[in-house]
Amino acid sequence: MSLPTSAEKTLPRIRPLTSSVSLGLIAAACLMLPAIGSAEPANPQDASTEQPPEHEHHAPHGGTLVVLGEEFAHLELVLDSQAGRLTAYALDGEAEQPIRVAQPTLELIMHAADADSAAPPPATLSLNAVGSVLTGETAGDTSEFSGQSDLLKGTRHFAATLAKIQIKGQDFHDVPFQFPEGNEHEE
Ligand SMILES: [Zn+2]
User: Fold this and answer.
1) What CATH code is carried by the domain that includes residue 143?
2) How far is the CA of 27 from the centre of ligand 1 (A)?
């Protein structure tokens, strides 16, 4: 008689113990979650202070870079929105040194600008070779091109296609890009 009663007493004691242990584990797990969550924001803050080792150029004139080929060369575009003047600088693969181009003009096919502005019809903008007394560059042997269009007046954003450029002995045709985003997507 004593054995069954002791067994009956033992079993009910074990059950509450196990359930209280499992509850304790759940409670401990719940307590840990906020602790982990509060620790995480500290890591991105530390990471953001480090310089990301990504492909990046610094446009010498602070303009928009259009890459030609696989970092073969670049065209840097600087827009004077008030005057409607666009200046292009032909640069090397590092976007550092000017590259002289022989052609007399660069043709840009201008597409519709962003939706919130009055979309101009596609039009050709000719950027003419610009000589420089300082660098000794002359039209037909220069890295600088410039053109003006009333379509560009007051414009901050546009899409265009570079019809053709021959640079460093290679031809590039129909190079699309956005301004001021450029056509390089590593950011
Ligand atoms: Zn580049």
Assistant:
1) 2.60.40
2) 54
